[in-house]
Amino acid sequence: MQEKGYVKRIELPRRRVFYELTEEGRKAFEELVGREKAAFFHFMREALRGSVLEGIIEKGGKLLREGREREAERVISSALAELALIPFIFAFSESGNEEEFRRKLKEYLKTSYPVLWTAGWALYQIASENPQFFEKLGKKLTKKIIKKV
Question: Which end of the chain is flanked by fewer CB atoms within 10 Å, N or C?
Fold first, then answer.
């Protein structure tokens, strides 16, 4: 590391030695952390996408094809709730204060955008095959929201 210019050796009295990152070392460290962070976000996004798609398309769509609307509603709602909760849980678990939480939540929500698009298209596909179900679901959700307001 010293030969590559990433750290410099500092000798102190009483044979004490420590190493300090150089500017080049700091840049290399930031690049490494950036790659690790990008890999984590990619993993989180793809895991979330797989989970949401499984819930919406595979399980929800199958239940609708079988005429099991109540179960389909529960499965689809759970998949969408998971989509909303995971960024919150990650941000909360990695934050020590409110400001840090806000910053982390914004970061994780940005990571979730592609999954939201995927979920939207999956819902559109199922809705086009089951318009009556989604019409009823829309009315039911609207009533719930109005009741709470």
Answer: C
Taking the whole predicted model, whether its pTM rises above 0.70 is answered as no
Concatenated DSSP letters of the chain: -TTTTSEEEEEETTTEEEEEE-HHHHHHHHHHHHHHHHHHHHHHHHHHHHHHHIIIIIIIHHHHHTT-HHHHHHHHHHHHHHHHHHHHHHHHHT-SSHHHHHHHHHHHHHHHHHHHHHHHHHHHHHHHH-HHHHHHHHHHHHHHHHHH-
Are 92 and 108 in contact, with CB atoms under 8 Å apart?
Answer: no
Closest CA to 45 of 120, 107, 125, 122: 107
C-alpha–C-alpha distance, residues 67 and 132, integer Å: 12
pLDDT above 90: residue 98: yes
**Which pLDDT score, from 0 to 100, does residue 149 have?**
67
Both tokens of residue 77?
Answer: 């709602």
